[in-house]
Amino acid sequence: MTAPTLISPAPGVPSRPARDPRSARWVAATVAALAGWAVLYSLLQPFADWVVAVLPIPPAGRLHEAVAFFAYDTPKVLLLLAIVVFAMGVVRSFFSPERTRALLAGKREGAGNVAAAMLGIVTPFCSCSAVPLFIGFVSAGVPLGVTFSFLISAPMVNEVALGLLFGLVGWKIALTYLAFGLGVAIVAGWVIGRLHLEGWLEEWVRNVRGGVAELPPVEVTVIDRITAGLDAMKDIIGKVWIWIIAGIAAGAFIHGYVPAEMLASIMGRQSWWSVPAAVLLGVPMYSNAAGIIPVVEALIGKGAAIGTVLAFMMAVTALSAPEMIILRKVLSVRLIAVFVGVVATGILAVGFLFNLLFA
Q1: What is the pTM of this model?
Q2: Residue 339 domain-assigned?
Q3: According to the model, what pLDDT value does residue 132 have?
């Protein structure tokens, strides 16, 4: 990034970067792109109707329902994902892994758990970054329980999950999911912190020492922030689009071919065992919020209990087996078992409470 030109100040007046004349053009182009996004979003239903009309399939039946679901949800999810990721990419330009560690370092448990869980919503996190983030937090002096609140919140209550839930199943479920997801992250992190399990970290992690580095001030322009949003779109959509297509295809199959009565009997509120079964089913799976939410939409549409379905989603995003394998590099088996047990208990509680609230 080219350093901004400085205007020579009067004596005793601090230097300020000159206003970049390109900023107005970038903002105008962004506004025009957002208007184009709105137009495309308004044409989703006509596009889906056109697709099923031109295909040689019977106008009524299971295949028609499945194809209509796929034709409507694929562009809808991709458009929602694009706008959410762009917006959060701009928000993330105000943060960095180093600044996040600096914000959490020295925080006491309780307030630190709350701060860590809130930061997890807007801070980049995925399974592949679990190890370096964990080491960075330890080296910055972040308490173990506070670190776990962040590691639980970031994949489970991230901006993609909330944005897609809001767009596909409504704001009430999205906000309730946010509240309970943050509750799981805060309480689980606090419980792990109270157990004082630092001795169960791998030895080489316990030997990591360090302090919080002083961060030099950096001037970030409007163009930098818009570019950060575009880069986030390119990076995240490029990584997850295949999972999105797979998730929508699975949702389309459920929507078209799985009888509502059968699904309601298996995942309905009357089946008390459906919540723990959903959690057990979700743990060995690997997906992300963007890929699993179309399945959630289809399951809810078929009459499955909301708490059961969202417990399944939480287990997939927060307790996936691949993430546990990666975290094994820094956590002992005993500490992973405690982590899984505490988080799974919180997810079970959320599932049962959701089923009660939305009965």
Answers
A1: 0.61
A2: yes
A3: 60
pLDDT score at 3: 46
Residue 15 lies in a domain: no
For 350, the token pair is: 């959320």
The total domain count for the chain is 1
What own/partner pairs with CB < 8 Å and gap ≥ 24 does 220-223 have? 220/93, 220/94, 221/4, 221/17, 221/20, 221/23, 222/20, 222/23, 222/26, 222/27, 223/20, 223/22, 223/23, 223/26
Most distant CA pair in the chain: distance in Å? 80
pLDDT per residue over 198-214, tens digit each? 888 877 777 764 444 44
CB 144 within 8 A of CB 192: yes
Residue 193, Cβ neighbours under 10 Å: how many?
Answer: 22
Beta carbons within 8 Å of 19's beta carbon, 6+ residues apart:
none
- CA angle 211/137/221 to nearest 5° reads 85
pLDDT for 285: 65
DSSP conformation class of 127: G
| Mean of pLDDT values over 64-80 | 84
Domain limits at 319?
97-203+241-357
β-bridge partners, 17: 6
